[in-house]
Design a protein that fits this description.
With 301 residues, this protein is an alpha/beta fold. Among the domains are: 10-98; 181-266, Rossmann fold. It has helices spanning 37-55, 99-122, 127-144, 193-202, 225-234, 241-250, 254-270, 276-300, and strands at 10-18, 27-28, 32-34, 64-70, 76-82, 87-98, 181-185, 206-207, 216-219, 238-239. The strands form 2 sheets. Strands 1, 2, 3, 4, 5 and 6 form a 6-stranded antiparallel beta sheet that branches. A 4-stranded parallel beta sheet has the order 8-7-9-10. A hairpin with a 5-residue loop joins strand 4 and strand 5. The longest helix is centred in the C-terminal third of the chain and has 25 residues, at 276-300. The radius of gyration is 31 Å and the shape is flat. The N and C termini lie far apart (84 Å). Residues 251-266 have a biased composition (Basic and acidic residues). Residues 174-251 form the BRCT domain. This is BRCT domain-containing protein.
Amino acid sequence: MPPKKVIPDEVYVISSIVRDDNPELDGLQPAEVYTTLAAANAAARKMMIRHAEACNPYGDLDEFEFRHEEKADGCYYGELEGGPHGHVTAEVKVSRAILKQAEADKSATTSAKGRVKKEIKSEPKDDEDEKEEDDDDDAEEEETAPKPTKGKKGPPKTAINAKTHRKTIPQGEPDCLAGLKLLFTGTFETMDRKTSIATAIKYGAEVITKLEDTDYIVIGTRAGPAKLKKINELELETISEEEFFQILEHGIPEEKKQRMENRRFADEEEGPEESDEDEKPKKRAAAAKAKAAPAKKRARR
């Protein structure tokens, strides 16, 4: 006789939401179910990394701030902040689900819906009552509706200024951004994340991730407070999405070209900065030389 399959009374569900300009990534993500809390927590941490890689395909994970914590019941909760958006990009959490209780709640909900339907059918409204309610609603709408004013019309009821928001990206001359080093941060009205980077590269710009090396930082809405603080401290040059479009249409201003040329010349005079990776071989060689010195003294003795 084959053994009976044991169905657990509770499972652990990983749910996550991503906020991204790309509609294919934005929104609730498919849930994952595990039978143990340890397996669910481990899978949730890996899911955070997958979301970071998907939301920033042109950068690296160091641009994100990972926040990991465990709630009082031991379930994992994490937030992903920063990256190209500068705000909370993803949330991942583990929840405990009681299967028997869930089934009971479902039955109770179904029966409650049945009772509500019966009550609605048993108490139909009179036509006169419905008409009176419609008249009351019309009267309220007339009272609350704003009265039209003569003269100049007010601004449109939208969060976006129609004068600065464009429906399409303007066309530029070939290589009109050649030599520029750009960084995009925040959310834009016309461009999404991938489109902004692709547009810059198309016209000859270089898209980088290090703030200090930028010629322009194109800032959108919802940029991260930490990144904005660093930009202000370093007194870096920033432009809006609309100013970026104007450079596409008219080219880089001559004054800016001169400043870029002076900066490049100064960087060449100073020479390249040594990175930590470049210093490691030198440190290892110095350590080996220090170890070899006592051995030579003992050999002479």
